[in-house]
Design brief:
There is one protein chain. The chain is mostly beta strands. It is built from two helices and eight strands, in the order E-E-E-E-E-E-E-E-H-H. It has helices at 113-117, 123-131; strands at 2-4, 14-16, 29-30, 54-56, 72-74, 79-82, 95-98, 102-105. The longest helix has 9 residues, at 123-131.
Length: 144
């Protein structure tokens, strides 16, 4: 059986584990539930319009990182955030589409570590979804 493991919605680790055994602490579930067609993130986007996406300044392209500088704003000498997220009503400038319908990230391959590390199927994900009246997702826990 194939499993997708690691960050819940990441494809960076996929492997075959004999006998259904998975590494301790991995988030694992059958690969079939993670097809693009069933990926709830492609219809959600609430995390991009609910939180400030802040990160270390050098993640922007002027510091050698991938995030386009013109899409960020300075928080202080060490931190930046995605433009539009440092607000009482945050919405990332890179978020395309309508939250809860069909969304995408204009800079997905260049997104910050904050965005890369945000996980679906968590309490934080459900807090963001709740702000938009979206149904909660089951919170997945690590297999021990």
């Amino acid at each position: 059986m194939f499993w997708r493991c690691g960050k819940i919605l990441s494809a960076h680790i996929a492997g075959r584990f004999s006998g259904g055994k998975v590494p301790p602490g991995a988030f694992c579930f059958p690969f079939s539930i993670m097809s693009e067609k069933s990926n709830p993130c492609l219809r959600c986007g609430a995390c991009c319009a609910a939180f400030r996406a802040s990160f270390y300044w050098a993640e922007a392209d002027d510091g050698g990182g991938p995030v386009p500088l013109h899409l960020t704003e300075k928080i202080n000498d060490f931190r930046r955030c995605m433009r539009g997220t440092w607000s009482d009503t945050p919405r990332c400038v890179a978020l395309q589409g309508e939250v809860g319908r069909e969304v995408g990230c204009a800079i997905y391959p260049q997104r910050s570590s904050t965005c890369r590390e945000f996980e679906a199927y968590t309490e934080a994900c459900n807090r963001a979804r709740g702000k938009y009246g979206l149904a909660e997702l089951p919170v997945l826990v690590a297999v021990a």
